[in-house]
Design goal:
Number of helices: 0
Strand content: 35-45%
Oligomer: single chain
Largest sheet: 4 strands, antiparallel
Number of domains: 1
Number of strands: 6
Shape: globular
Distance between the termini: 19 Å
Helix content: under 10%
Strand order of the largest sheet: 1-6-2-3
């Protein structure tokens, strides 16, 4: 599955997010959601401090 740029991130959906740079793809190991301008861990619903560059749909529903 292809990665989309973070500028087009939808809110309220479970997403796989990553930082993609010249050294490769660095995905976050758990599903995330972008809600009200804040990234949260979709499992715990707690805010997380990340600055991803890309996203795609999370493969499994929670």
């Amino acid at each position: 599955m292809e990665w989309d740029e973070i500028i087009s991130v939808p809110s309220g959906r479970n997403l796989e997010v990553a930082v993609i740079d010249k050294t490769g793809v660095h995905p976050i190991a758990f599903p995330c959601r972008y809600q009200d301008g804040v990234w949260i861990n979709a499992n715990t619903r707690k805010p997380i401090e990340i600055s991803p560059t890309h996203w795609r749909a999370w493969a499994t529903s929670i």
